[in-house]
Design brief:
Layout lengths: L7 H31 L3 H28 L2 H23 L5 H33 L5 H29 L2 H19 L14 H16 L2 H32 L4 H25 L5 H27 L5 H33 L5 H13 L2 H14 L2 H21 L1 H31 L1
Helix pairs in contact: 1-4, 1-5, 1-6, 1-8, 2-4, 2-7, 2-12, 2-13, 3-4, 3-6, 4-12, 5-6, 5-9, 5-11, 8-12, 8-13, 8-14, 8-15, 9-11, 10-11, 10-14
Length: about 450
């Protein structure tokens, strides 16, 4: 994995993503806690979380078309600069003793602008990585980029909690804005082959998106697997995005640092998983990884739900609950990487370079399409029932999704076909090396 960082362009993408994502994690964790403290209604909190996700969902396919036709590097640094400026301005206004209503309006406006720019940044950055590395480096690149999410969770969450507790929400905005600007500056030095200039208008953009969708329809197994990913969000998102922060904030009445320790344990698990699985993934079979990963996620999610049940019903004290949650979240983070890294690498190899921007945008849209609805439904269910009902519902959805994926012959053929293709490629490499070894 170390060799991938000798690639200057990839190293710049990695560092730019790392800096801006640490700032983003730092910002989002504190912002969510702050909004939960401002708003008593669980539904209102869920709506706030859902708005940004909905905007990014709607715009991402169109932004994927733009990423394929314009300069991806320029899109990345311009959107980082815009996000940095907006967050810095919002931070300045936070210091002006706003009313609760004014603060909520400001937070909504900031969230919307960040979502719009994130919709441009995501397809540009994800489709740029395969353009600056060789196919042999896909696995290492994918593992390294997975580490970004893990590191941002560890560093961003803990720094965010410390700054929020000791300095206040205003400084969260200032530091995050500075991180976006620093990231944008580093991204200006990325150098890739010049893209062929083409005129961009609404009609040609829609035509390109239609072509991207038509291309993906030829990948039946991939599309149906994405439908499964969409449904997985109904299992994970309501509990993680709505249930857990409100449970710690409203029910347990802990501080942000306590909540973030639990979230950081997940990130530590994903970081270690990214390193270990990244080095082993070439020897892993995609179908086997998906099968074992899904079963283990059901086990892990059931354990999380039971721990919450015991805490709510007074069967354990808070300290025991806290340590058990940290342990189980760490293990589920490891499982997540075992499931995701081989699949993501397979997707990279499946999609031809000229369609990657559009394809990744559509894939991202399909896999994230359920997020705003799942967040809202999670808030409604939590308002009407409790955290235990929400967690048990999540397990039920996860089991349904696992049944769909395992019972779908198209998905099974697709995943097994990827394993056969990988085996054939390894055999071809060994055959190509035999004459060289014999001469040596």
């Amino acid at each position: 994995m170390k060799k991938i960082f000798l690639n200057k362009n990839f190293a710049l993408i990695f560092m730019g993503s790392l800096v801006s994502n640490i700032g983003n994690s730092f910002f989002n964790a504190a912002l969510g806690w702050y909004v939960a403290s401002l708003l008593e209604s669980k539904i209102q909190f869920a709506i706030f979380i859902a708005v940004g996700a909905a905007i990014q969902l709607v715009l991402t396919p169109f932004c994927g078309v733009i990423a394929d036709r314009l300069n991806k590097v320029r899109i990345m640094y311009l959107t980082d600069y815009i996000r940095g400026a907006v967050v810095l301005i919002a931070g300045y206004l936070i210091f002006q003793d706003l009313t609760v209503t004014q603060t909520v309006v400001l937070l909504y406006a900031t969230s919307i602008i960040l979502a719009i720019n994130g919709a441009f940044f995501g397809p540009a950055s994800s489709s740029l990585v395969p353009s600056v590395v060789t196919e042999e480096e896909f696995q290492s690149a994918n593992s390294s980029m997975s580490m970004v999410g893990s590191i941002q969770g560890i560093v961003g969450l803990m720094l965010g909690a410390a700054v929020y507790e000791y300095m206040g929400i205003g400084w969260i905005f200032i530091i995050n804005g500075a991180s976006f600007i620093l990231s944008g500056f580093s991204e200006m030095f990325i150098r890739v082959a010049k893209q062929k200039a083409s005129e961009l208008d609404l009609i040609s953009g829609l035509r390109d998106m239609k072509e991207g969708l038509g291309y993906l329809r030829t990948k039946r197994g991939l599309m149906q697997l994405m439908y499964g990913s969409l449904m997985l969000n109904f299992a994970f998102v309501p509990l993680m995005a709505v249930g857990m922060p409100l449970f710690f904030n409203h029910t347990l009445q802990t501080d942000l640092m306590q909540y973030n320790y639990v979230m950081v344990s997940w990130s530590v698990g994903t970081l270690i998983g990214a390193i270990v699985i990244g080095n082993l993934a070439r020897s892993l079979k995609v179908f086997k990884a998906a099968s074992i990963g899904l079963v283990m996620m059901v086990v892990g999610w059931s354990a999380i739900s039971y721990i919450i049940y015991m805490m709510v019903n007074g069967m354990i004290v808070y300290d025991t609950f806290f340590m058990m949650m940290i342990s189980v979240m760490f293990v589920t983070g490891l499982i997540n990487m075992y499931l995701n890294i081989p699949l993501n690498t397979a997707f990279m190899k499946t999609i031809e370079p000229e369609y990657r921007g559009r394809a990744f945008a559509v894939i991202g849209t399909l896999s994230q399409a359920a997020v705003p609805i799942a967040v809202f439904l999670g808030g409604v269910l939590l308002e009407k029932t409790d955290i235990v009902t929400l967690s048990v519902t999540s397990i039920g959805v996860l089991i349904l999704v696992m049944t769909y994926i395992f019972g779908n012959p198209v998905i099974r053929r697709y995943l097994k076909g990827l394993d056969i293709k990988n085996m054939q490629e390894k055999q071809q490499i060994n055959e190509d090396l035999e004459p060289v070894l014999e001469q040596g």
